[in-house]
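Hey L., structure's done. Input below.
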Amino acid sequence: MPAELSAEEFLKSDGVLLDTRSPCEFQVGHIPGSINLPLFSDDQRKEIGICYKQQGQEAAVELGLEMVGPRMVNLVRQAKRLAPNGQVRVYCWRGGMRSGSLCWLLETAGMKVNRLIGGYKSFRKWCGDTFCIAKPIITLGGLTGTGKTSLLHALGQRSQAVLDLEGFANHRGSSYGSLGLPPQPTQEQFENQLALAWDEFSGDQAIWIESESSHVGLRHVPAALFSQMKTSPVVLIQRTLEERLDILSKEYGDCELAGLIEATQRIERRLGGQHANAAVENIRQGDLKPAIAIALVYYDKVYQREFPRPDVPQVAVDLRGMTDEQSLEKILVAADELKPALAIGN
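Output:
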């Protein structure tokens, strides 16, 4: 018999992750790192569902067996190719017949199998519970263009604990945020990735998170996590406007002009028609800095409206004219000043 494991046990166990659900189910969301080995295609799953409603469970089961039967050998061969050591972890939606059937088949073929109790649904519950676990956070704050993301990555290279929300979301968090990046994951998959990352953090080490609104592009930060972010102490990065323009010009300098123009036109109402038109004309001429300066007037107001947070400890860090290494050292010194505020429950 396969080992029946809770979500926490399942995630920590060994073996290749196999998701037995249909391709559409898998696309919406899956346990990160898993491979789709569907028992049924999307159309077959739909057909079985109709059969279940019209004729009952027994008829649906028979139809499913009829569909899977000719593919049993191929399923075993695929599983063995994916897991040469013969060890797999299997799940379906609720830990029911699909995962149970594949577990029986693979175990009969001599493989070692672990099965997720409650299926993907129980994993999703585990994700929600995981975000409720309080952990020490330091928010890396600052106006748009102060280089927070690159500093966050540098902190990670210094063995600091880092949760890169924009990296998981494939978005920089503004109208321009998707330019040059892959499509955003689904909301479910965004949460799944964050949950596994959040679970990895342990002990008293501070977790660095870049200041964000509750949404990163079209993806929203899980409420339990965002609640912790809002009350976390802040290291506030400060740079000159010229430095910010330089940083943003380098970041977006390789983007297609059409994408930059479209992103500017999306916020035309907020910039004002005259300013938006001026920014678009600058972009068309390949002169990004004046266009960025116009956009920053709006984004600075947004940041100052959303991130006052007067009730949380803050340390301002002036990085004007500093090298990357100097900036990092100064940020880490500021973090030391905030350590007393990091105790959970403060």
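The mean pLDDT is 93. The chain has 17 helices and twelve strands.

-- N.
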